[in-house]
What we know:
By secondary structure, the chain is an all-alpha fold. It has one domain. It is elongated and about 45 Å long. Helix content is 82%, strand content 0%.
Amino acid sequence: MAVETSLLPSVNAVLNASAACFLAAGYWFIRHRQVRAHQMSMLAAFVTSSLFLASYVYYHYHVGSVAFTGQGWMRPVYLVILISHIALAAIILPLALITLYRALRGRWKLHKRIARITLPVWLYVSVTGVVIYWMLYWL
């Protein structure tokens, strides 16, 4: 059964936005010592981001790359966002896996140390994913 690829960019943007919301909620929960809610939010962010990655790979396997058609000052803005997004997206998967592994093993000190790096990078990647979608498909 083939999946209709024209809807996937929108699905991907929703998944990225959802992951960003789960990450922000997870941060809020842990800052307020609501550990169980934090765990659920972070697991939801991980699952949502994993679904995004599968959908993204499927889409680009079938469609290829999508060119940015914007001109003028928007083009360099788009390229700066895209390049930083790609560079950080390349490292977020191993960072997230290590952070999750340390949490699942109860290695809280090490988990906290890497989570301080993982969270802002993951949030940036999720939010800029939505911005890139908006710039590609709505500008």
